[in-house]
Design goal:
Length: 173
């Protein structure tokens, strides 16, 4: 993967599994992806786990979730490892982080007659990794936290402002 990234070009990511790519790339000989990454945006990312990911294990052998879901469980060693890795990059000043947090419960299962099973998928305690900027998205659930309605929506405007800041800062690097 490192060979695909130009060594002089800054990289900005937008997604929740990017830390895994960065961690894998750091172990490669050149590590250009890590070196050139200047910012990451997380939309309702479970840095410390998700209640929804915990549920299948509480139900015994009824559900057999994929191993990747296990990595999203509360207290997952993989999540701790990824968060520590990003925190170190942030402390060194080589990575800016913007995190968004949902505030509404998300319908998981809906049925006839208006009943529904709803859950706060990523609470603020998990959405904020403890460093970087945090934007709380009022009246937004997990599914819609990355879907701005207008350009004035904070999930759009704050991301745009963050990207402008990264571009200005990366021109000095």
């Amino acid at each position: 993967m490192s060979a695909l990234i130009a060594p002089e070009r800054s990289v900005k990511f937008h997604g929740s599994l990017v830390a895994q790519l960065l961690l894998k790339d750091e172990n490669l000989p050149r590590g250009n992806l890590v070196k050139n990454t200047v910012g990451v945006v997380f939309y309702s990312c479970p840095h410390f786990g998700s209640k929804l990911a915990d549920m299948p294990w509480r139900m015994g052998y009824v559900f057999r979730p994929a191993p990747s879901i296990g990595e999203l469980r509360s207290g997952s060693t993989r999540l701790v490892e990824l968060n520590d890795f990003l925190h170190e990059l942030h402390k060194k000043g080589s990575l800016d982080v913007l995190s968004f947090c949902e505030t509404k419960v998300t319908p998981i299962v809906e049925g006839y007659g208006g009943w529904a099973f709803r859950l706060e998928i990523v609470p603020i305690e998990s959405a904020y990794p403890g460093y970087g900027e945090l934007v709380v998205l009022e009246s937004t659930d997990h599914v819609n936290s990355c879907k701005p309605i207008t350009r004035t929506d904070p999930s759009y405007s704050e991301t745009l402002q963050f990207l402008h800041k990264l571009r200005a800062a990366s021109s000095y690097r």
